[in-house]
Design goal:
This protein is an alpha+beta fold. Helices cover 52% and strands 15% of the residues. The chain has a four-stranded antiparallel beta sheet with strand order 8-5-10-9. Strands 2-1-13 form a three-stranded antiparallel beta sheet. Helix 2 packs across helix 5, helix 4 runs antiparallel to helix 5 and helix 7 runs antiparallel to helix 8.
Length: 371
């Protein structure tokens, strides 16, 4: 958005006249294409989101900054006046909404109302319990809030699957999916016990006799897998006996298949990633004793299933093909969406955009005490 109100005298008067006449027109929509329209309430919500993003950006260099302390007429973000930056973010979100609606039509995608309503229930809860007074003042209805927040994501997921899933125009061969999976995922099991106890609100080491007993147990579990060829399930059963775990009590075990890049850096995750496949190891980490076992990742390939496939009795262990595809192709998909956005042909309704501008949103947020 260009700041055109810099001149004085007649130019300022002319601009005021133009704004007055322009703002008196139809303000029911902000942007539209031949297939979709962004309503005024949806546009206002986009400006609200833009302001929230701007505050977060400013807080990166000034953690105490908030809505009221920021000088919105002087603040810059990424070398651009803050209000212009917010407008650009709001416009991007608004255009994304109408673009996704258009892509849904072009690709024969119908938003499943059951899926939409399942998502809407939580958004409606937040609207009515946290945002209603504010959004009513702004002019954002519950429907506008839910539509902009939910529909683009549902359409995006459907479109992605239509492109890269079975039968899609860019379908990924099964062999490629499986290779990506075995190269980039890790499947593991671990069980743990505390090597400390709490005394006077402080963690203290277990007595030597108890600690030695626990270590002996865990070395036994490692031998069960490495020597006796027992399974993690067998280890869990033995652990229940050794630690006197009663029926209904929780066993401190984890069995997961994870994308390596999503595993946050920690001493435990490092130990998991460094473990040899098919071999159990005992590690003491941050006051806990762990028995870590890393499965042969290729043994998990048969568990890769698409959402529409029959999962049978092993449903709890199913690995989502869609999730793997997302990891493989999300960069390509985002590039496709960027290209679609760049060539989007749309109309902007100045009457609506000027009436419900960034300054209005900021002022209402200040008036209602939302900082």
């Amino acid at each position: 958005m260009k700041n055109i109100i810099k001149a004085a005298g007649a130019v300022v008067c002319a601009a005021a006249v133009l704004c007055a006449s322009g703002c008196s027109g139809n303000t029911k929509w902000a942007y539209k294409t031949d297939k979709a329209e962004l309503g005024n309430g949806q546009w206002i919500y986009c400006t609200f989101e833009g302001v929230s993003l701007a505050i977060s950006e400013v807080q990166k260099t000034d953690e105490k900054a908030d809505l009221n302390s920021i000088d919105w007429d002087k603040q810059e973000i990424d070398g651009e006046p803050a209000k212009d930056w917010i407008y650009a973010k709001a416009k991007e979100a608004g255009l994304n909404y109408i673009m996704m609606e258009g892509l849904a039509i072009d690709n024969g995608i119908t938003v499943d109302e059951t899926v939409f309503n399942a998502n809407k229930s939580s958004y409606s809860y937040f609207y009515n319990n946290y945002y209603k007074d504010l959004f009513t003042k702004l002019g954002v209805s519950e429907d506008s809030y839910c539509e902009v927040s939910i529909r683009p994501n549902i359409i995006s997921d459907e479109l992605f699957n239509k492109m890269y899933g079975t039968g899609g125009v860019r379908e990924v061969p099964k062999a490629d999916v499986e290779k990506f999976f075995t190269d980039n995922y890790v499947s593991y099991y671990y069980i743990s016990c505390d090597m400390t106890k709490t005394e006077n609100d402080e963690a203290v080491d277990l007595d030597k006799e108890t600690a030695d007993k626990y270590k002996a147990n865990f070395n036994k579990y490692a031998a069960m897998i490495n020597t006796d060829k027992k399974t993690p399930a067998d280890v869990t059963a033995q652990y229940k006996v050794d630690f006197e775990i009663k029926d209904g009590e929780t066993v401190p075990e984890v069995s997961e298949t994870s994308y390596k890049d999503n595993m946050q850096t920690s001493e435990l995750n490092t130990a998991i990633l460094e473990a040899k496949e098919g071999e159990a190891a005992v590690k003491e980490i941050s006051g806990k004793l762990y028995l870590i076992y890393r499965y042969d990742i290729s043994s998990k390939v048969p568990l890769i299933k698409a959402n529409d496939e029959d999962t049978g009795d092993d449903a709890a262990e199913i690995i989502s093909k869609e999730d793997i595809l997302k990891k493989m192709k999300i960069d390509d998909f985002n590039q496709y969406l960027k290209e679609e956005r760049d060539k989007l042909q749309y109309d902007r309704n100045d009457a609506c955009v000027h009436k419900y501008d960034v300054s209005r949103t900021i002022n209402i947020l200040k008036e209602t005490g939302n900082s």
